[in-house]
TrEMBL record:
It comes from Lactobacillus ultunensis DSM 16047. The lineage of its organism: Bacteria, Bacillati, Bacillota, Bacilli, Lactobacillales. The keyword DNA-binding applies. This is UbiC transcription regulator-associated domain protein. PROSITE patterns: HTH_GNTR. Signal peptide: none annotated. PANTHER family: MANNOSYL-D-GLYCERATE TRANSPORT/METABOLISM SYSTEM REPRESSOR MNGR-RELATED, MANNOSYL-D-GLYCERATE TRANSPORT_METABOLISM SYSTEM REPRESSOR MNGR-RELATED. It comes from the Bacteria. Residues 3-71 form the HTH gntR-type domain. SMART domains: HTH_GNTR (SM00345), UTRA (SM00866).
Amino acid sequence: MTKAKYQEIEEILRNKIISGHYKIGDLIPKEMDLVKNYNVSRPTISHAVQDLVNQGYLERRKHVGTIVKQTKISQEFTQVLQSYNSEMTEKGLTAQTQVLFFKKIPASKEVASALNLKENAQVYKLTRLRSVDQNPLVVVTTYLPADKLIDFEEIDFTKQSLYQELEQRELPIIHVKRKLEVKSADGMTADLLNIKEKDPVFYFHTYGYFKKELPMEYSIATYRGDENYFMIDLRK
């Protein structure tokens, strides 16, 4: 099938972005300059550029122009059980982890219910800021039953994967349930993720189970809405 002219221009511009000819933060030429460069109409250029904006490759900025932006990162964790580092490595990206909080605390009513514990039972609370290429993407707070995890506080989770550590202890997460909400970022979350307060964020509750459907993990993850999207692959 023959491509429409705007699709041809869109593909040319997209390839220039992917190849690095236009780098992140660069202004692309003005629409009238693109009209002259490709010998097409203004509506054709506008259509091509708008499609690339919709796809996340470009961003229009008032009084500035149209710039190349970092494309959103596809997160497959809605359908695959693997560590964040492993998922980012598969995409050719470099992940970083900063541990913001890690210690034993008494379980709140919500956490105790999620982990099938008595209220105030001891749990580990682990809060991590996950980034890609130094760009913060998600804040994750994870709760785990302390009585099953001897010497757990000695683990350096800036380097070690939580799921790999649990597997080494013969407590592998083999089944998860996740609940997704879209919320507005509060002030603290906005500061950590380098976004504006009240910007939209993806808010996931994860319930992780090991053998015999025993609860092992309760996590709350807040993902930037402007840098992530989630793949869901369904088959009958």
